[in-house]
Design goal:
With 197 residues, the chain is an alpha+beta fold. It is 34% helix and 35% strand. The protein has one domain: Alpha-D-Glucose-1,6-Bisphosphate, Chain A, domain 4 (2-Layer Sandwich), CATH 3.30.530. α1 crosses α4. The radius of gyration is 20 Å and the shape is elongated. The C terminus is likely disordered.
């Protein structure tokens, strides 16, 4: 009797796993997450903060995940080739981001490489547009969903997993850039969302 129950349970679990894997295989092969915010700081002031990876820790939404996080900077102080690598606890993981392209003062593109707890490579883009006396900053990320990523998306989209972090980071970036520019704080504090699977 016990063997029959165990066999039935095994078959049910096996079928459930097969079903999950089959459904996961139909999920999108790529993802896009995007958030925007307005700041009273002019585009050049925003660009200078983003272009200097040594300042990333001032506004990073992940900084508090591991106060003892080890950070290493390589390459030039700013601009193309400048790199920021981190190694933290299980929550922070480890990885590296490198500036690959800049168009001052309107755009920066970075290569983001996650090493732990999983490996993946993404493209990060910051767009800075003039808006009134300040700027509109858009932070986006594009990546490919490997099979593990597709399974994870069954339980929550990348937008839900990363969107909140982007919003917190942009709110901090707004404060940092307005302070750096000596600009009065702008009235808008919220972010806008543009999400794709």
């Amino acid at each position: 009797m016990l063997k029959k129950i165990a066999l039935t349970l095994f078959l049910v679990i096996t079928l459930a796993v097969i079903a999950i894997l089959a459904i996961a295989s139909t999920r999108p092969a790529s993802y896009h997450v995007e958030r925007s915010i307005s700041t009273a700081a002019p585009p050049q002031a925003v660009f200078e903060v983003l272009d200097d990876l040594h300042r990333f820790r001032e506004w990073s939404p992940w900084e508090k995940l591991d106060p003892k996080m080890k950070v290493t900077y390589t390459g030039p102080e700013t601009g193309v080739g400048s790199s920021y690598a981190w190694e933290g606890n299980s929550e922070a993981g480890s990885g590296r981001m490198t500036i690959t392209e800049t168009t001052p003062p309107n755009e920066l593109i970075l290569k983001l490489e996650f090493l732990k707890p999983f490996q993946s490579t993404c493209a990060v883009r910051y767009k800075i547009a003039s808006e009134n006396e300040g700027s509109r900053v858009t932070w986006s990320i594009d990546g490919n969903n490997n099979f593990v990523g597709k399974v994870m998306c069954l339980f929550g989209s990348m937008d839900k997993m990363m969107g909140g972090d982007f919003e917190r980071g942009l709110a901090s970036l707004k404060q940092v850039t307005e302070t750096a520019a000596g600009a009065p704080a702008s009235a808008e504090t919220g972010t806008t969302t543009t999400a794709k699977p």
